[in-house]
Design goal:
The complex is a heterodimer. By secondary structure, chain A is mainly α. Chain A has 20 helices and four strands. Chain B is an all-alpha fold. A two-stranded antiparallel sheet of chain B has the order 1-2. The chains are: A mainly alpha, B mainly alpha. Chains A and B meet through helix 12, helix 17 and helix 19 of A and helix 4, helix 9 and helix 11 of B.
Amino acid sequence: MSMKSGFTDWLGSPYHCTSEARRESIASEQSMSASASTTSGNFTSPLSGSPLSDSTPTSAPDLDRSAQSGVDEQSCMEPTSPWWVKLSRFRSLVGVAVVIALAATMPAWLPATHFLTVTDGVLAGIYTLLGLSMVILIGYSGQLVLMVNATYGLGAYATAILAIDDKFNLWLTILIGIAINIALALLIAVPLFRLQGHFLAVATLGVGLIAYAIFQAAPITGGSNGINGVPSLSIGGLHFSSEKAFLYLVWLIALLGIVGCRNLVTGKFGRAMLAISTTESAASSSGIRPLRVKIVVFVIAAVLTSVAGSLYATYAGFVSSSSFNVSLTLTILVMVVVGGLRSVWGVPFGVLAILIIQGALQTYGPNIIPANGSDIPIVGYGVVLVLFLMFLPGGLAGGAKQLWKLGSERATGLFRRPATFNEQPSLEESP
Amino acid sequence: MGEFITFLFAGLTIGAINALTGLGLLIIYNVTGVINFAQGDFVMLGAMGAVLLAGAKGYPQRLPLLIAIVLVVIAVAILGAIIERMAFHPRRHSGPLLLLIISIGVSLVIEGVVLVITTSKSYGLRNFTSGKPLLVLGGTVSLQSLWVYGVTAAILLALYVFFSHTTVGKAFRACEINPLAARLVGVRPSRYWTYAFALSAGLSALAGAVIAPMTTATYNMGLALTLDGFVAWVLGGLISPLGVVAGGIGLGVAQSLLDGYLPSVLVSYASVFPFIVLIAVLVARPTGLIQALPDRRV
């Protein structure tokens, strides 16, 4: 793959396509058998560079390579494909296993880094939920909604205000938080989604700022003094009061969120999301209602962030407005870009990468930079964000996929195809 | 009455800065289509740079103010051009969302670098002219406010002359109106991306240097300035410089009067006002604000 096509086509380019659409085009290619090289060859070439949403584990054979190699090679490739190519059909299961392993060993490896604690592991799980909301909204639906801090804060305050002094059952408050968030999302979705592109970004950022001002000033939230004494979760005889127990709970929920979002984006609805992210009018002319898709995604995102907020409130036991600043939204955005804006599996890795950078900067930064430790990570964020956008816009997930493809192409000898086959059409260049 | 006049003049000062930031956003957006989240950081750089070169209030003086400000404006303009070349230019075909996220990243980088240099303290700049505040109709106006009005008016006049009476300025407008036609007559729109960033950054830096004596400069003042400028720009209808100035001043005066006259229960919500206006305007006229430009000659 040429580096250029990998960089340019991930957002805003007309050449997006899901792996499903690619499968369909390949199916038609196979039915056309020999004539595949003439028209459909040109048609599929721009698709091969687009960031892949992983193929579903069981039903779909791995057709990505056959998409590039053409039809002829497919028949001779399948029987001899090495174990790692076969394994890639179960990428999602591998992903689940990796995330479980990563989370399960957290109490061991986080303190071993000397600058992270188990608390960071819990936060990583919570931020993963927030990041997922951004991946489905920004990465897949193309709606630059930047108000994570508002919905997250709303969930946290719902739990904190209602659960304090054991007024309500803690689990009930999580549900109430979700209900409030859904109600608010439905209320503001219709006017908000009349806006497009960066106007939506600025308006939602404005919603985030308004929410932060309300969190600061409203008497019920306690402002920056906050609310203290939120009880910790328990179910039956199982108490999640210890940090380790809560860590596993959070990551279980995060994993559920990841798998749920992945199913969402790989299904029919996911194709609708991708369709509205590229050309809304084309999507609506093929029977998709853009507003409905946006509202559904918006509500799902609100639910994810609300749960994350409630979990944060009960974990920290203390909620104050400073946790819901607009800078939180920007931090999560950086994490999501690092993980891969269009990768559900990339989120936990992006979150951990940024937390590691942040921890390292906070610990070792003051030796180099004479400033408050808490202010220093901002240096790292900006640099990391710009570097990733410039050199690896697909994020860690995109980079991993490129490497994987390169490796398996080398290994199976599929590198022989004509070099021009994979070139991006020159439309990207100015005439 | 005197109180009202005081608030009014304070509002005009805020409004002038909103208007200049909004104009910076407008120049970049019209030529490049980028919404530059780092605009407020250019203002911050102007303020911070002037403080660093001229010496902060209460510290020994370094350079004379005028020289310090000229140097800062030139330096920030060059920085704007460098940022455009390094961060935006290579990705200029990648769609508006990516460019927006890049500008957020640029903003974080600028804030980070300034943080490293200034160690998160806030600095004031000494007033351009010393003297007692003027009394106008029973209200007070600080002399620095007069400087803000004067500089804003001078910038607006200069921009007007630049865009309508110089070849480079006309080429700018050609790039906004029709990049393809501009190419045909020998203007390179992609080069004007760089010029637009330089012009806009220099303009914002000047605005920052002028307000530095009234608001203390801190590394993280940029985002709020960007958003206020954005409100001014949206209020002004996105393509009209005069509209942006009117929008910015109107917003500033409204902010100041709200701050002054809201009952104390509500005054902590006053900072929310611009964003409520912003969302209301955006939602009420989502398409009307992005008007297709009629074919024009420059």
